[in-house]
Model the fold of this input.
Amino acid sequence: MSAREELSHELQKHHHPASVRSMEALALRVGMSPSFVHGIIQGRLLPLEGELKALLKAMDVGERAQQRALLLHGEAMAELHTRARTSAKRPPATDWRVPVPPAGEPDPVLFSTVQEFVAGLEDVRIWAGEPSLRHLEERSARLHQQRQTAYGRVLRRSTISDMLNATSLPQMEKVRHFLQICGVRDIDAWVYTWRRVRTIERAALRRAA
Done:
C-alpha cells in the first residue's frame, strides 16, 4: 500500500459522511470545493500540507492522528519526487514534447515549461481517443450533475479550447477537471508538475522585472 493510500485510509477512519450535505459542510469549513475534499479523502488527490492541516482540524482529528497523517503526507510527497527523479533519467525525446506512452496515460513529470505542460494536455486528449470539445463539455456536464467534478462548474468547450491553446498555465482546478473527464488516473502527478512549472514561471517573471 502506498503512502497516499494509507493517508486516505486514515482520513476515512475519521470521516463518515452520512450525506452529500455533510461533505459540503466540511468543504465549506476548510474553504475547498466538495469534490476536492472528497478526492483527498478517497485518495485520488494529494493536497498541500496546509490544506491537509486545515482538513484535519475541521474533522476534529486528535493530535496523535494528525501527526500520523502529516507523516504519511510527507511520505506521499516523497514518492512523487522519487518518481520525478526516476523519470528524469530517461533519454530525452527527439521532440521537446514527451510522447504519449503506447500503453498508458501521458506522463507529465518531465515538463518544465508552460508550453510543454499545455502540449501535454493536448496529448491527454489524444490519449483519451481525441474526443471533440463538445463531447468533453457533455462529459463535464454529466459529472457536474453527479457532484463528482474537480471544478465547481461545467467546463465549457470554449474554456477547454482556451486551455489547449494557452500561453500561460491554466487554472489548476480547470486542469484537474479536464484530466478527470479525459479519464486520467494519476492526477496528482499533473498537480505536482503544475506547481513546479508555476514556480519556475514566477521565478522567470521576477528575474525579468
Q: What stands out?
A: The chain has two domains: 3-88, 114-208.
